Amino acid sequence: MAREVGEIIKDRLRKGQSSILACSALKKSYRFRLKGDHEEVQFVHLSGGFDLIRSRMGGRNAHFMRNDLLLS
Fold first, then answer.
1. What is the dihedral of CA 13, 15, 19, 24, to 10 degrees?
2. Tens of pLDDT along 34-62?
3. Distant-in-sequence, close-in-space partners of 70: CB < 8 Å, separation ≥ 6
4. Residue 10 and residue 34 in contact, taking contact as beta carbons nearer than 8 Å
5. What does pTM read for this prediction?
6. Angle (nearest 5°) at CA 42 between 16 and 20
7. Residue 68 and residue 72: Cα distance in Å, rounded?
8. Is the pLDDT of residue 10 over 80?
């Protein structure tokens, strides 16, 4: 998956397009691979408490992650 996301990033940069992509690049090595040598690529870390995340997940329809997996 990282390879595909990395290719999307390169393609958008090549075209001069601004983009926002969401992925769970949790490891520094994943982020390094995605960014490459492109200084203009930035990462934002979103965080929230268990109750906040659970309530937001409860409001989603047809999401790939089941609510009971949050504890894992």
1. -50
2. 888 889 999 998 889 999 988 888 888 87
3. 50, 53, 54, 57
4. no
5. 0.62
6. 60
7. 8
8. yes
Band of residue 68 on the pLDDT scale cut at 50, 70, 90: confident
Quick one: pLDDT at residue 60?
Answer: 82
Q: Using CA of residue 16, residue 17, residue 18, residue 23, what is the dihedral sign?
A: negative
Which one, of 8, 10, 36, lies nearest residue 23 by Cα? 8
Structural tokens at position 19: 């983009």
In single-letter form, the type of residue at position 19 comes to: S
- What CA–CA distance (Å, rounded) separates 7 from 64? 23
The dihedral sign for the CA sequence 26, 28, 29, 35: positive
Q: C-alpha angle with apex 6: 69 to 70, nearest 5 degrees?
A: 10
Is the pLDDT at 26 greater than 80? The verdict is no
